[in-house]
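retry 2 of 3: previous attempt timed out while embedding guanosine-5'-monophosphate. Reduced batch size to 1 and resubmitted. Inputs unchanged:
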Amino acid sequence: MRILDEIKLDYQDVLLRPKRSTIESRKDVILERTFTFYHSPKEWTGIPIMTANMATCGTFEIAKILSKYKMITTFHKYYSVKDYENFFKTFKNPDYICYTSGIREQDIKQMKSMKQKGLLEKFSFICLDVPNGYLQNFLEVIKDVRKMCPKHIIIAGNVVTNEITEEIILAGADIVKIGIGPGAACTTRKMTGVGYPQLSAVIECADSAHGVSNEKGVGRIIADGGQQYTSDIAKAFCGGADFNMCGSLFSGFEQSGGETIEKDGKKFKEYFGSSSNKAMKDFYGKKDTYRASEGRYALIPHKGDLNDFISELMGALRSTATYIGARQLKEFPKRATFIKVNRQLTTYLEKYDTGN
Ligand code: 5GP
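retry 2 succeeded.
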């Protein structure tokens, strides 16, 4: 047994110190970034924010909206080849969509079938997604998929520590997905005791990923899960995240997945984890008895139109930039000084907030 003594941090444990700034208007702040990668020869330009590959936000409907803002939709795993064939009859923009696959035999089979039909080429990104990225077999699958898809930008995760981040990149991934336990619908920490405070995981893994470099580019990371507020997205970028992936922040909108439910005259939307009892029953027809559910099901208040939230999100990031003196998103980590805090971010008025 060993105890690591250093206290690690979550987003709510820090604030950003304001810095002298010469930016005159928030609209001058550039949120787009251009990335090159360690393996993929592609160059990608956009706002590096993406949906989680969850049924409530990784959907075709959301992709039609987010692609207009140059943000990425990571599709959930439950679409069939037929669903994709239909979708691509009208949707033509590969840059802002990501195909998700698990590593089970049937997942790989579907990916191969997508490849044979020329559908995989309609995506810039492929995400290899497992709850526990520490399995040795995961590295083998990444190597195989890299051979099969030499040009794609491959995302793989989830992990939370630095050595494995490097290993995953060297095995064939361009981007490593960081986060075990922080997700809003995730009960892994509670059920198993396993996890890592998310901001520290992001800072440490970004540092090791960026250290893996070649003439084409460097390793990249995604901060996945745990962003409760737009400020958490800003903090993840400041900590060195190249991309932010969010589930609950993109759920609950008119255009999000999940049922709309009326209760006592108020409108709610479903939000549920990918390994919740609901997801397992709805999409696989059953929950295997050897597995515990590590996902929550919740009804969240209906949030209205997703487009309004995106404007607010971009406005908030521009505002962070002006406070810390960053002219572009790329400068966030250079400009950031975190202050450790020991209280929550709310003010006493929060409980009276009407949301208007
Ligand atoms: P959020 O942005 O909602 O806080 O977190 C989204 C992330 O939570 C997802 O990208 C994924 O990594 C994680 N997640 C989603 N569903 C589940 C689940 O059922 N169990 C666990 N452990 N994590 C989940």
